[in-house]
Amino acid sequence: MDRTLIIGTRGSELALWQANFVKDSLAAINIKAELKIIKTQGDRILNLSFDKLEGKGFFTKELEEELLAGTIDLAVHSHKDLPTENPPGLIIAAVSEREDPAELLLILKDCVDVRQKLSVKYGAIVGTSSNRRKAQLLAVRPDLEIEDLRGNVPTRIGKLRDEDYDAIMLAKAGVARLGLDLSEFHVEELTPTELIPAPAQGALAIQIRENDPELFNALQALHHADVAEELAVERKVLKLFGGGCHLPLGCYCRKDDGKFQVFTSKADTGEGFPDRLFVEADTTEGLAEKIVARFDAGRKHPAKVFISREVSENSYFRKALSKNNIEIEARSLIRTVAVITKLDPFILRNTDWVFFTSKNAVEYFFKLDPQLPKKVKFGVMGSGSEDALRRHGYFAEFTGEGTDTADVAAEFAALANGTTVTFPGAASPMRSIHQGLSADTKIIDLPVYETVLEEDVEASSADVMIFTSPSNVDAYFVDNLLDPHQKVIAIGKSTGKKFDEMGVRYTLPFSPDEVGLAEAVFGI
To answer: To bridge 379 with a disulfide, which of 217, 398, 517, 518 should be the other Cys (CB 3.0-4.6 Å)?
Structure first.
């Protein structure tokens, strides 16, 4: 290509990084380009939150107008800022690789409270102008005060530094691209399966005129078709909901082990409690339509759900089901009792890691008032165990996500192989995590409780039966059978294995916590 291309971009540091990234990528394929900075509505109006701005494309409209006028050859956008429909005459020619679409919660260090979920103190003021973030944050921390936060990334961080807020939320991608030093803050990273990102978050879109085939063909060297396929699902969901920047919608699609996994969160308002859904499919065909149909207000939900554990009045799971008028029957079918009342102070002396596979393990361990080495690290299975650990004032250095313990074991082994790992737990542990560790790893099994099955367990007439452990399955089916209409949700593959042996079909939630359970019930 002989001509020098004009790249249209906003003038923020992040936008310029993105435009220069594309410019350098073009230079690598021998195409010259220069930048033209264009100010957008979103750059000019900084005193209003996004839901107060009129129209769509607050950060893109002016760039698109210059493209159509021919004063620039291509525009570089944060893909999440683009409306779901291109203006007539414009197309997306290329999509970049996707940065990690996780979110970061930046907290002033004197506002940190590790005993709270997300580590920010009770009643903290958190800055964000995103209704999507607001709804999801309040769902897990309703005590927080959410206040509008506008400006580019360095400006937002400056407002936190000036203590206008106790914490702020930012996309990890922007921080990573700018290479910002956040060491003065406590940083909590929320994975895209915990706090679901905006559709297309973390990717760049290169937009051109439709009647420029030469440029389109040249840009295919920069195009990542696999990313585009995933983003197409997310943006189709957004389009079907008729949403823009102000819609409290998160949608994240990824391909894992040959299957497309999609996580969706949608609330009516920023203050509203969101519904969440997890679906898995072999193909993206019709996937967005399937997801949106599950959010139909007229869709019939189960009338009653049984769960084999106690559920507190203020729990995420209860709030998620109550919103959809689903009755909960919560009762544990097992009892746990301590097996030791005193801990040998020498048993933990050389321990590098303490790993918990359940909340019970955490609680019974700390009842023993353990004398921990100064540099000990903690690993946990699932967010429930992580929250229990936080309540005792400790962070988890490793949190295993998902229900496949073999995958979790492999991830943990990459950190812990060759060290000494103590496993406080049940008297007869499953040893699922142990099996992933190498032979040179010293393993200490520390039984701190045992499980006792309840007798004469009463049957449930609930539409959905949730079993939280293999022991609960054993206790229920001593005297009871499933009714033909009842559907089963099993937490963890070891619980699911019990139903495999019984020949019973079941649903396995993506994550073995209250959010994962709510997703599974909502998806039935």
So the answer is: 398
For residue 95, pLDDT beyond 80:
yes
**φ, ψ for residue 412, nearest 5 deg:** -70, -40
Distance, CA of 516 to chain centre: 11
In the block, which residue shows the tokens 């197309």?
Answer: 91
> DSSP strand E in 54-102: where?
74-78, 90-95
* DSSP per-residue codes, 388-457: HHHHTT---SEEE-SS-HHHHHHHHHHHHTTSEEEEEEESS---TTGGGS-TTSEEEEEEEEEEEEPSSP
Are 260 and 287 in contact, with CB atoms under 8 Å apart?
yes
CA of 407: how far to CAs of 308, 420, 422, 493, in Å? Answer: 26, 20, 19, 12
What's the rounded Cα separation, in Å, for the pair 56 and 140? 29
In the block, residue with structure tokens 């040179």:
440
d(CA 130, CA 113): 24
pLDDT tens per residue, range 158-192: 999 999 999 999 999 999 999 999 999 999 999 99
Q: What per-residue confidence (pLDDT) applies to 49?
A: 52
Summarised one tens digit per residue, pLDDT across range 228-269 is 999 999 999 999 998 766 789 999 999 998 999 999 999 999
3-state helix, strand and coil shares in percent for the chain, rounded to the nearest 5: 30, 25, 45
Measured CA to CA, the distance from residue 493 to residue 495 in angstroms comes to 5
Phi and psi at 349, nearest 5°, equal -55, -40
Distance CA(100)–CA(261), nearest Å, equals 16
CA atoms in the 13 A half-sphere facing the CB of 193: 19
Q: Write out the E strands in 259-311.
A: 259-266, 275-281, 304-307
For residue 214, which amino acid is it? E
Q: Quick check: 215 pLDDT over 60?
A: yes
pTM of the entire predicted model: 0.90
Q: Is the pLDDT of residue 449 over 90?
A: yes
Q: Which amino acid is at 524?
A: I
What is d(CA 129, CA 151) in angstroms, rounded to the nearest whole number?
Answer: 10
Contact predicate 95/236, CB 8 Å: no
When pLDDT is averaged across residues 374-399 and rounded to a whole number, the result is 93
DSSP annotation of 118 reads G
**Number of helices followed by number of strands (H, E) in the chain:** 16, 23
Catalytic residues: 81
Torsion sign, CA atoms 267, 308, 142, 171: negative
pLDDT at 207: 97
Query: What is the CA 132 to chain-centroid distance, rounded?
Result: 13
Locus of tokens 């994240």: 252
Task: Tell me the residue type at 350.
Answer: N
